[in-house]
Amino acid sequence: MSGNTADEVLKILADWGVRSMYGVSGDAVFPLLDAVSRQSKIKYYAAAVETGAAFMAAYEAKLTGHPGVCIATSGPGSANLVNGLAEAYYDGAPVLAITGQAATGKLGTNTKQYFNQQQLFTPFTRMSELVVSPEAVGPVLVSALETAVNEKTVTHLSIPVDIWQMPAGGVKRARITGRRQIVGSGFAGGLEETAVMLNNAQRPVIIIGTRDGQTAGRCLLLADKRGAGIIVAQQAKGVIPDDNPLVMGGIGEAYVPQALSQADFFLLVGAAAFELKFLPLAASIMQLSDSPDALHYDRIDSGMIGSPGQLLKLLIEKIPARRDRKGWLDEISADRENLTRQLAADADNGEIPVHPGRLIAALNRTLAADAIIACDIGSFGHWFDRGFQARQQTVLLSSRWRSMGAGLPAAIAAKISCPEKQVIALVGDGGLLMSMPELLTAVKYRLPVTVVVANNHEYALETARMQAQGLTPFGNNILTPDFAAYAKAAGAHGYRVEDSAQLESTLTEAFGSNEPTVVDVQVSNPQLPNLQ
Q: Is 215:309 a contact under the CB 8 Å cutoff?
């Protein structure tokens, strides 16, 4: 005998390399938590809210590529996971959610906290199963892990509370490895067509929408050989340095280079859900993706499904080096010089409250070269796209789901996964309001993350968009506490910055702390020049 079913679940997870698990306690997972206490391979992190636990699992998976695992009890506990699971699902992160369920004899009744969990989770998972016998738990769990990892998606298991403590019976724990990434003769025609389009383009651009370093490196080789500009999508920022002369800048509401409107061909490697709306409609777009789920069918002209890295390797071999590329690269260079002037002006901006561009300039000056930045959603994020000059930093953010409130849980997961790295959460006041309880999680586990708050006391992006649509802004003002005082009450360090002259020194002190820290920066709300 190998213990009860809960013990067996943990053994299988450990076999698959799971070392962290996030969740909130509740009746239907008591036996699982009891089993966690009897083993040492997997560390359990008790989040404040199940939503935060799901975000932590999602961003651990994004950062490491390993399966992130979150757990919750039945009823409202499991329902609270949905927001974080949707984040992982739409950005292709391997996550397994395990939820407790009512006892098998109560399924389908009006017993406390019972509902059909599969109906709720199906839109945000590739697989959602209710397991009603201990003999099935092992095979179904392995299938869920294999699907999550190899399909880069979310899977979910509901396990009734009485199943946990039943004998596992020595279930075989098969482990399946590998992922289908075949590039063969079926790609020949598509590769030839793409090579011709790329070679014939006068003003080509390659969009890097993947965090895979090898693939990004091949994008850079192809761009250099062909004389193409490069756009690094938001979620891939930092995968190549922003000081590379081919990088056109982070495009979005705060900045669009003039040369972009003249581009006639885009090769999109990975996904770029946010950037597509800024591309000229007349240009052709070819997308390389390892999953049909990530193809932008409504915008691209053609696409290939396979290993983007392997496809790029073949394209590089087919593309001759271009000699007549100076004019296009001169346009890119002129835009880069213009952006450099704008960022220099941001760095010298002394207005009060702090201009968000000035905050980003201070981050450029003070962050470690290999820091991890978990960026929440809000108007400050567009100034970050425009102004942050990534060196070797890793930027974590939501590409498609775009939920506020993920920044702090993402930073917690990043610090757990990479304890040696400097980790910050860059959040708005609204986003922090949605995740404030997780600061207590960071304090509880003594995780030295720094939360930098761009605080303008409203949902500023929503106000700007309502105005742009000719609507009266309403319901966007928010009441925010003194975040620095809240941090201190929670057992963290807290700073409040109102003057630009305080930024660098305060951030340097905060980043040097070995405790959770909040830096509440009072920022202005300047108009975004390219609001859409």
A: yes
Locus of tokens 């394209």: 315
Structure-block tokens of residue 182: 């075949």
What is the distance between the alpha carbons of residues 512 and 330, in angstroms, rounded to a whole number? 41
How many other C-beta atoms lie within 10 A of the C-beta of residue 530?
13
Give CA torsion, residues 370, 375, 381, 384, to 10 deg: -10
Residues 11, 36 contacting (CB under 8 angstroms): no
217 Cβ partners below 8 Å, 6+ apart?
240
Domain of 197? Answer: 185-331
| Burial category of 475 from C-beta neighbours within 10 Å (exposed 0-12, middle 13-18, buried 19 and up) | exposed
Which CATH number characterizes residue 208's domain?
A: 3.40.50.1220
CA 136, distance to chain mean position in Å, is 33
Residues 28 and 117 in one domain: yes
Structure tokens at 130: 């209710």
d(CA 123, CA 126): 8
Sign of CA dihedral 275, 281, 282, 286: positive
Contacts of 152 (CB under 8 A, 6+ apart): 92, 93, 94, 290, 291
CA distances in angstroms from 77 to 100, 166, 354, listed in the order given: 9, 23, 40
> Coil, strand, or helix at residue 24?
coil
* Cα–Cα distance for residue pair 405/51, rounded to 1 Å: 9
Choosing from 125, 160, 195, the residue where a domain stops is 160
Rounded Cα gap, residues 530 and 256, in angstroms? 7
Q: What tokens were used for 295? A: 């193809």
Distances (CA, A) of 266 to 228, 319, 527: 9, 15, 29
Place of tokens 């599969």: 118
Query: What CATH number is given to the structural domain containing 445?
Result: 3.40.50.970
Domain count, the chain: 3
Can you give the C-alpha Rg of the chain in angstroms?
Answer: 24
CB atoms within 10 A of CB 55: 34
Q: pLDDT tens track of the chain, all 532 residues?
A: 358 999 999 999 999 999 999 999 999 999 999 999 999 999 999 999 999 999 999 999 999 999 999 999 999 999 999 999 999 999 999 999 999 999 999 999 999 999 999 999 999 999 999 999 999 999 999 999 999 999 999 999 999 999 999 998 555 555 555 544 444 444 556 788 889 999 999 999 999 999 999 999 999 999 999 999 999 999 999 999 999 999 999 999 999 999 999 999 999 999 999 999 999 999 999 999 988 888 999 999 999 988 999 999 999 999 988 766 689 999 999 999 999 999 999 999 999 999 999 999 999 999 999 999 999 999 999 999 999 999 999 999 999 999 999 999 999 999 999 999 999 999 999 999 999 999 999 999 999 999 999 999 999 999 999 999 999 999 999 999 999 999 999 999 999 999 999 999 999 999 999 999 999 999 999 999 998 7
Domain boundary among 331, 360, 379: 331
**What does the alpha-carbon distance between residue 501 and residue 348 come to, in Å, rounded to a whole number?**
10
